[in-house]
Design goal:
Layout lengths: L3 E7 L13 H4 L10 H13 L3 E7 L11 H11 L3 E6 L6 H10 L3 E5 L5 H4 L10 H24 L5 E8 L7 H11 L3 E6 L16 H9 L5 H5 E4 L4 E3 L14 E2 L5 H5 L2 H11 L7 H4 L13
Length: 307
């Protein structure tokens, strides 16, 4: 049984303040508004540590927007730092006002990841600004976000804290040509890293074909390798309590969940037959890995119109 992970992901809130058109959860009205109780978050972390599970970082991330957790997100950071873990948070940045930013820095946050695609309203309107009908509203939100990132970097430097600030950029056909302008803009502001992630689709859409035609299967078959970084290094716990042995969940594939911390202690879930069986399949023959893994297309660049 595996007892080490690079990071444990906790979705503290399954709410979002944006309605991005590319978001599968928004399109399916899957956001429940559920919030993971702070006491259960702390209890699960303590159970992992007390039972010898090793992990380097706690990542406050999920399908919802982390900052909709309110002031309790500061307490979540403090709990993680008390356990001497690196704490990362992923946000769209819209709720990152300067008071909250200062409190996050003071609480000991190590890494802040801000999701923003584009520095022009034409590009941003296809991604995080896609819920606006008026391009002027898109531009207004984008300018507010750029100013918040600028102020956050300045505050970090003024407080002389070693907080790493990263921008996340979604790579799709519509955003490829604007990436270098984006990189130049945020490099000048002073962010530390820019991470590019390919656009992900909906596994229940028609382009998610089945069988040996699946892209994930073809890639693994061609190189003779099953290894999945997400499966081996990540554990994700969602606000509804579901536990996934990767960065899931994927809509329509909820059976990949290995348990629920509202019902079962996290350590019991990780010693369960379901998790051990999945590990054995991931270590075995290519033909035996779960179909959900063959559906993964995270390495592909596609048009936003495909989803």
């Amino acid at each position: 049984m595996r007892k080490s992970f690079e990071a444990i992901n906790f979705e503290m809130s399954n709410s979002c303040n944006l309605r991005c058109r590319f978001c599968t959860y928004h399109k399916r009205n899957e956001f429940s508004g559920k919030k993971l109780p702070l006491a259960l978050y702390e209890k699960s972390l303590s159970q992992l540590i007390d039972n010898g599970f090793l992990f380097n970082a706690i990542r406050l991330d999920g399908n919802g927007e982390a900052l909709t957790y309110g002031d309790s997100i500061i307490e979540a950071v403090k709990i993680g730092k008390k356990l001497q873990k690196r704490i990362l948070i992923v946000t769209n940045g819209i709720l990152l006002d300067m008071e909250r930013a200062e409190r996050l820095i003071s609480a000991g946050i190590d890494h802040v990841i801000i999701s923003c695609t584009g520095v022009s309203p034409d590009v941003y309107s296809l991604f995080q600004g896609s819920h606006f009908a008026d391009i002027k509203q898109v531009d207004a939100q984008l300018q507010v976000l750029i100013r918040k990132v600028t102020d956050f970097v300045a505050m970090r430097d003024r407080m002389r804290k070693s907080v790493s600030i990263q921008m996340n950029y979604i790579l799709a056909d519509e955003s490829q040509s604007s990436f270098f302008e984006y990189a130049k803009t945020f490099r000048a502001i002073g962010v530390d890293r820019i991470f590019v992630t390919p656009l992900q689709g909906d596994p229940q859409s028609p382009d998610y074909i089945s069988g040996e035609e699946l892209p994930g299967y073809q890639i693994r078959k061609s190189i003779g390798l099953i290894y999945c970084d997400a499966f081996y290094n990540t554990l994700t716990i969602y606000a509804n309590g579901d536990v996934y042995p990767c960065c899931g969940p994927i809509i329509g594939c909820e059976e990949f969940a290995i348990g629920n911390i509202y019902e079962t202690p996290i350590t019991n879930i990780l010693s369960s037959g379901k998790f051990i069986e999945l590990e054995e399949r991931m270590y075995g023959e290519i033909e035996n890995i779960p179909m959900i893994c063959n559906r993964c297309k995270t390495t592909f660049v596609r048009s936003i119109n495909e989803i």
